[in-house]
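WARN no homologs supplied; continuing
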Amino acid sequence: METYVYAFVIGGTLALIGQLLLRKWSFIRMMTIFVFIGMALESVGVYRFIQSFAHAGVETTLVHLGASCIQAVKTGDFTNVVFFLSFPIFVAWMTAIVCKPRGRIE
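OK structure emitted
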């Protein structure tokens, strides 16, 4: 039960930080900051500790993407990073095919 609480607290804290950053900065800048936070946490060695008790609270965020990039550089195995980069591109591509654009492209 406490695993769920830790996942909720860590994931909620990351969501709160994201919402606070969105008030001041653009979505792209906020995403970049989260990826760099994950890179910094993995470089220092703190990410594994956070991941051990928060599990899905941190593994479903952009922080995990940054940590996966550093892990790939350390180990030389880039399969995790390829999945995390290709899946959102695929979902965006499928959404663009299925949905009509509402905005005007100039």
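The first helix runs from residue 2 to 24.
OK
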